[in-house]
Specification:
2 copies of one chain form a homodimer. With 194 residues, chain A is mainly α. Helix content of chain A is 72%, strand content 0%. The first copy, chain A, is elongated. Chain A binds a DNA duplex (30 and 30 nucleotides) through helix 1 and helix 3.
DNA sequence: GCGATACAGGACTGTACTGTACGATTTCTA
DNA sequence: TAGAAATCGTACAGTACAGTCCTGTATCGC
């Protein structure tokens, strides 16, 4: 099984790209097999050869578009590594593609178990990176093991996602810096609310 | 026009409640006129007497469910008032109803101008409250007029919305306190990233 | 080149939903 | 109680979409 038929890879890519464009431009409800046929030139029967149902295609579209975040270089300390990570998140959220797809995924995951699993896998990858990052912070003595990592990540990433969703404030690296800066400030001044 | 026919108010309320329940439980795609008929007992023709199209009904459902936030008492200072406001936000986000509806609204507003306007009105109301709150902070000398209010609100509310959407970390008043605490800490320690 | 396989291009069935129409019935108001 | 108005119940046309099936054609690996 050295090589796979190039025709298969070709149509698969064409269909996925077209489907993603439709979802981004018109939403998930507009993703119909006929729409993909009309826009991609790929035949109806061919699409059903690759995906048993329309829903399977939609799942693959999301999976195809989920951003792949990368663990920052191990030489970096907590602050620099976290900043780099947050900047990468900003990049993906600012991109029109994921900017439109994320809310759709959030909205659908509550009702479509298959999409919920796509989102789970995404959070797993992100979770392992975040664990790595917080391990650096603990090693540097910035906080102890009692720090709630999930909550901390929520505090750091939340503003970025919110900015992307609401469109109230522009999503920029400076926003990520501000979020990180507030978090670090909160570390040195122990939470008076508890 | 002293009193309106109670039948009208009754049907309207029944249909809106039923429709909201369907959207919460099964998503906006499941909101069909037939589904409302089956579940509410209201006749098809009656629904079309009140709403010209299914989409108009959906818009009304969102409008009917948008939480109405309230300006905290004027006696409260910036910190206490903001805390109260954030706790109210947490309350609404923790409620199953709005917890499901918000992502749907976020996902659809990009493609449905009518829903975009629902969201705009919501943000306007929220924006006027936020202006009031920041005015208190400025009066107390916590920051000057150069503070970007939109960004600040994003930093404060973002984590709450993100927690509600992702489900990674529980959405509690303590989370709101942590967000506020980080923000205040960031104020006293001027942002080193700029 | 040749067999195998993927693709193109339809036609077709079944279903779900929208929106309209209209007579019969209930419920309000005066 | 009587008239007005809202509601019920149902039938109907039109449309959009999912998914199947079949035939002929292009493209691949060998």
């Amino acid at each position: 099984m050295g090589t796979t038929d190039p025709r298969i890879a070709r149509t698969r890519a064409t269909v996925l790209d077209t489907a993603a464009a439709i979802v981004v431009e018109q939403g998930t409800a507009a993703l119909t097999v006929d729409a993909v046929v009309a826009r991609s030139g790929v035949a109806r029967s061919t699409i059903y050869r690759h995906w048993p149902t329309r829903d399977d295609l939609l799942v693959d579209v999301f999976e195809h578009c989920v951003p792949s975040l990368v663990t920052p270089s191990p030489e970096l300390g907590f602050e620099a590594a976290m900043r780099q990570f947050l900047h990468a998140v900003v990049d993906h959220l600012a991109d029109a593609k994921w900017n439109r797809m994320l809310p759709a995924l959030m909205a659908l995951k509550a009702y479509e178990p298959t999409l919920a699993r796509v989102e789970e896998r995404m959070e797993e990858r992100q979770g392992s990176i975040s664990a790595d990052l917080f391990a650096r912070g603990e090693r540097e003595g910035m906080f102890g093991p009692e720090l709630d990592r999930s909550r901390a990540m929520t505090l750091l990433v939340g503003p970025l996602v919110f900015a992307a969703l609401s469109g109230e404030t522009p999503i920029t690296p400076e926003l990520a810096d501000a979020s990180l800066s507030n978090f670090l400030a909160g570390l040195s001044r122990p939470d008076p609310a508890r």
